[in-house]
Amino acid sequence: MKYLTVGDLEDCLLNKVDLRRQQISQAVEEVQKVVHHLTTNISNQDIRFQAVPYSDTYNENIKVLAPSQFLVTVPIKGLAGYREAREQHWRYYTLQGTRLPCPLRDPEGLQQWLEVEQFMKSLWQWHETDVNIDGDIVPAKVLLVFRKLVENAIRTCHLSGKVSLLGNRSAVWVAVETSAYQVELELVPTVEIPTTWSKKARWPRCLQRWPSQERVECIKSFGFNLLACSNYHWQLSFLRAEQVLLEQLDEDGGCRRKCFQVMRHLKEDIWCPGNRPVITSHHLQTVLFWTCEKYPHFKDWQVFSKAFLRLVRKLHKCVSQHFLKHYFVRNSNLFQCTNPTELDTVAQKLATFLKNPQVGPP
What we know:
It is a single chain. Helix 1 (6-45) packs across helix 2 (139-156) and helix 5 runs antiparallel to helix 6 (281-294). The protein has 2 domains: 22-238, 2-Layer Sandwich (Beta Polymerase, domain 2), CATH 3.30.460; 249-357, Poly(a)-polymerase, middle domain, CATH 1.10.1410. It is of the alpha+beta class. The strands form 4 sheets. Strands 2, 3, 5, 9, 10, 11, 12 and 13 form an 8-stranded mixed beta sheet that branches. It starts with a strand and ends with a strand. It is built from 8 helices and 14 strands. 38% of the residues lie in helices and 17% in strands. The chain has helices spanning 6-45, 139-156, 213-220, 239-247, 256-271, 281-294, 304-320, 340-355; strands at residues 4-5, 62-66, 69-75, 79-82, 111-112, 119-122, 132-133, 136-137, 163-166, 172-177, 182-193, 224-227, 234-237, 358-359. Belongs to the mab-21 family. Residues 255-351 form the Mab-21-like HhH/H2TH-like domain. Pfam families: Mab-21, Mab-21_C. This is Mab-21 like 3.
């Protein structure tokens, strides 16, 4: 059996990277047609949810986490003029409407409360009890409303043969049959907060040399999102900011993007394959950002083999320690809720690769 060294990986695997891009593009094309159809119907049912637009180029509402796992952010309407909460207070409510003797735990890391009064303008529907408790817009209640709308939309749009709602999950997941394979989508109601940067994201760090200060200001101008994907707390997301960072990686002519693409291919084919992998493209992207920040100079990204192995070593360290800091909110561990046994399996595969960086043909 012929093996490929890291020196050979660049040419061989970049061909496979191109093939992957074509396959993913086709899947995204088919998925976004379905998503646009569904969410248009949902928006007609409930004005609080906006249709995901169809795009001939990049669709910022669809994030590919793995070839068969997409994150779809569904914009929320009727909330404008966001401002940070002025004061903190205890919450004693439950989702069922009963009162607790002790307060709910405070949000941590990427989490936060969301009060309707934090918006200068809001539709009256956001004050209704189907989504609001004591002035808080509660993500679990938003998801409950949204799930029913998705179920109705699948039936109304006659998509039952192509789209199925996946049960037994707190979040809203659907399976979509594409021409090549099945894709699972997490549909997440999302509050988009443009032009405002979250106070929780204390970025950039002191003496940071990558990206440039000009680029930092540009990235922060894209604001952030709040995702409804848990019971009481909204989750901070920086999808637009991260996409801008990715798009402008190699303006100096380096090989950062190439290293990322090859690492993603090996992750999907060898280190962590499967429909719901414990390591996603977002994890790899975060590892890339941290490595770019530590090695900000062009000379560090001239030689593919050296740069690629440096990136894999960083990934191995994070997976082995079950710890990967979010790039913008550094007190949040992206591996906090992942399966430690699965992480250990990936770490072992990465260690084997690093001892002898060769890849056998499948």
